[in-house]
Amino acid sequence: MKNLMNRSKIYLAIITFLIFNTIIYSQNIHSPTDILGGELYTDSDGKVYMNINVLGHVKEAGNYKIYEGTDFLTILASAGGPLDGAKLSKIMVYRAGKSSFSINLNEYLLENDKSTFIFYPNDTIYIKQSNVSYILSKSSVLNALLTLLNVFLIINNS
């Protein structure tokens, strides 16, 4: 009987320990710290991550959690990369309540030091579609309008 009570105490201690660690662990995963008007989070390993928005002419626009210090190409890859016809010479980065700046992807790739761009929580990367790409993407509408105009001219000349 005494052996059974000792086992019960051990099991109770283990269960209490597991519940306590689960609560502590879940609080450590999402413990926000307000920095520069946005939020940084830490995981159980102490890695810091933040939310970044990627919008515009990319495969999967959206909000992404990235680790602090993530380079620009990795962020673009998270969004599936730019689509054909993206204007890569002037990628805009908007900082909430702060200034904006542009990144020329070709120049960025030629630089030896890729750490020149530091991203902050809630930064928004916007990739615009080039004008030529936009016009070509609307070519089916343009073709339909020209066909209608051609039919109209044929009817009026008859």
Describe the structure in your own words.
With 158 residues, the chain is of the alpha+beta class. It has a domain at 33-127: Outer membrane lipoprotein wza domain like (Outer membrane lipoprotein wza fold like), CATH 3.10.560. Helix content is 42%, strand content 22%. Strands 1, 2, 3, 4, 5, 6 and 7 form a seven-stranded mixed β-sheet that branches.
Topology record:
Blueprint: H1 2-29, E1 33-35, E2 38-42, E3 48-56, E4 62-67, H2 72-78, E5 91-94, E6 100-103, H3 105-110, E7 124-127, H4 131-137, H5 139-157
Parallel strand pairs: 3-7
Antiparallel strand pairs: 1-2, 2-3, 3-4, 5-6, 5-7
Helical residues, percent:
40-55%
Largest sheet descriptor: 7 strands, mixed
Query: How far apart are the first and last residues' alpha carbons, in Å?
Result: 109 Å
Helical segment count: 5
Q: Which shape, going by the Cα principal axes?
A: elongated
Extract low-pLDDT stretches: 24-37
Strand content: 15-25%
The name of the CATH architecture of the domain at 33-127 is Roll
| Strands, count | 7
CATH class of the domain at 33-127: Alpha Beta
Give me the CATH fold name of the domain at 33-127: Outer membrane lipoprotein wza fold like
Q: What is the residue-mean pLDDT, rounded to a whole number?
A: 77
Radius of gyration: 27 Å
Give me the secondary-structure category.
alpha+beta
The helix/strand series, from N terminus to C terminus, equals HEEEEHEEHEHH
CATH superfamily label of the domain at 33-127 = Outer membrane lipoprotein wza domain like
Quaternary structure state of the chains depicted: single chain
